Amino acid sequence: MLDKGAEIIRQAKEERKNTKMDKTRIIVVEDNIVYCEFVCNLLAREGFRTVQAYHLSTAKKLLQQASDGDIVVSDLRLPDGDGIDLLR
């Protein structure tokens, strides 16, 4: 049973390597450095590329350089604004 589960996980990882998701960058916007690094580490363990932004201004600069498919995970309360401002 464990061998079958391990095989399913291996196949899923192989399939993800062949998808656009493997090229997707996740921008994590969080002013708490510990939380930001924690989230980035979790995502990196799953094979995602992450970029950290501790301020809204940094996140906006990163979004100007963003490509199609990039994802943003944002805190709502930041020192220089809120995560909702990223949507505007």
UniProtKB/TrEMBL annotation:
UniProtKB keywords: Phosphoprotein
Residues of the Response regulatory domain: 25-88
Database matches in SUPFAM superfamilies: CheY-like
Origin superkingdom: Bacteria
InterPro entries: CheY-like_superfamily, Sig_transdc_resp-reg_receiver
GO BP terms in the entry: phosphorelay signal transduction system
Pfam families with a match to the protein in the record: Response_reg
Modified residues (4-aspartylphosphate): 75
The name this protein goes by in its record: Response regulatory domain-containing protein
Natural source organism: Phocaeicola coprophilus DSM 18228 = JCM 13818
Taxonomic classification: Bacteria, Pseudomonadati, Bacteroidota, Bacteroidia, Bacteroidales
